[in-house]
Structures are given as C-alpha cells and as structure tokens.
C-alpha cells in the first residue's frame, strides 16, 4: 500500500506544472500568466477575473505542489492592472500532459476571443494515465470585448 502511494505521488509530481516557471510573453497583446495541469473544472469554459483578490483566490485554490509554509500565489506573476485577465478551464482529460505553454496569437471577431495555442504533441506510445483538469490564466488588452472564448490549436 505504501509503495502504491509513493508511485501515485511521483506520477502527480511529474504531471503538475509549477507556477514558478517563467512563461514567456509571446505577443504584445496577450500574456500567459499561469498554466497548471490540475485543479481546473471537469467542463471547459472561461471566466473573467475581476481583481487581484479573485486572482489570488484562484491561485490558492488549485491543486499544486508547493513548499511547506509558502503561499502558492507568491510564485505567480503580479496581477496586471491594465489588462483583462481570463481564467480558462480546458476540461477533463484521461492523461496528464494537457497544459498550455504559450499563446501564439489572440483575436476578437463577432464577440468571440480566439486564442491560438500550440497543438499537443502526438502520443509517442505509453502515457501517464491520470485524470487531469488543466487550466490557465492569461491577460489581454482591457478594451477587448467578447462574450465567449475559443481555443484554436496550431502546429
């Protein structure tokens, strides 16, 4: 039983993206703030984060591996006050490799915010089989007006 728990812990540690990793700003109109492999919702969808208090609440509520005694939000970038922050849940997956590592482009058309992200690499055989609920937060210019968000995967 003890060895099973150790194996499960190792699998979870290998799947979780750490917020302390610096994620580059890929375009001047979009900024990837945080990307996590766990802690999102079963259903895909988005919500706009209104203020720093809500931003920190999301940071503190998700599944993540942290150092004992440290606040998980301390590794997150500062809340951008001059941008609109969006939390996007990717939904549920049966493997642990579904995280967003970059935002290639964003655009708004007909009240839809299109977010272009890299397609997941093709499976090379064996994968870690663990239920994951990845999510990410990103910032766009405050003047972007949209009522839905759609991901576009590209190579």
TrEMBL record:
Quick check: keyword Signal in the entry? yes
Secretion signal, residue range per the UniProt entry: 1-19
Which terms are listed as keywords in the entry? Signal
Q: What is this protein called?
A: PrcB C-terminal domain-containing protein
Originating species: Chryseobacterium phosphatilyticum
Per the UniProt record, the lineage of the source organism begins with: Bacteria, Pseudomonadati, Bacteroidota, Flavobacteriia, Flavobacteriales
């Amino acid at each position: 039983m003890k060895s099973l728990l150790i194996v499960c812990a190792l699998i979870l540690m290998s799947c979780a993206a750490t917020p302390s990793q610096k994620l580059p700003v890929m375009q001047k109109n979009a900024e990837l703030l945080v990307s996590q492999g766990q802690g999102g919702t079963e259903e895909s969808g988005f919500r706009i984060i209104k203020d720093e208090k809500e931003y920190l609440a999301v940071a503190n509520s998700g599944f993540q591996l942290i150092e004992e005694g440290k606040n998980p939000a301390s590794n997150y970038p500062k809340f951008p006050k001059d941008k609109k922050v969006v939390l996007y849940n990717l939904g549920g997956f049966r493997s642990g490799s579904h995280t967003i590592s970059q935002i290639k482009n964003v655009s708004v058309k007909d009240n839809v915010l299109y977010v272009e992200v890299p397609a997941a690499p093709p499976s090379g055989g064996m994968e870690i089989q663990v239920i994951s609920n990845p999510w990410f937060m990103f910032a766009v210019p405050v003047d972007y007006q949209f009522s839905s968000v759609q991901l576009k995967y590209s190579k």
